[in-house]
Automatic annotation (TrEMBL):
Residue segments, region Disordered: 124-150
Gene3D superfamilies, sorted: Hotdog Thioesterase
Domain HotDog ACOT-type, residue spans: 13-125
Basic and acidic residues bias (residue ranges): 139-150
Protein name (database record): Acyl-CoA thioesterase
One BP annotation, GO: fatty acid catabolic process
One GO MF term: long-chain fatty acyl-CoA hydrolase activity
Amino acid sequence: MQQQSSVGTRSLSASRAEMSEILMPNDTNNLGRALGGRILEWMDVCGAIAGRRFAERQVVTASMDHVDFLAPIDVGDVVTVEAYVFDTGRTSMDIKVDVTAERPSEGDRRETITSFFTFVALDDDEKPSPVPDLVCDSQEERELRDSALQKRREHRAALAEEFE
């Protein structure tokens, strides 16, 4: 996706966003587990925050890749959503969003959901606007970027195989 931008550079760490919620009964199904739509909403919001921090302007969701629900989230769990930009185009940003759930009283923390979102930056007229180029200032940032790029490639390859 990488294309040159005319608005400078920003680091992966400049985009990082994290938010936490307690899964309440209104956010659950009849089994006391998270409603997928509620968690997707939180993921979209966290991804938008990461995109806004990175682009320093308003963003809109352009797409969301396949979502992997890895483990259930139960009522009362602390849900943490984390997001960061891992690739950029001229006006778009690819953002990895991960969700974990934990029971602090039990010392239990587990990965529950992961997905990739694409957001587009907007100018004051709500037209697509250039975004900075992504730079990775540390080995940790390079590893996060490379891991996200690899996982997205694997997701897309798996989906392509399903449709062959």
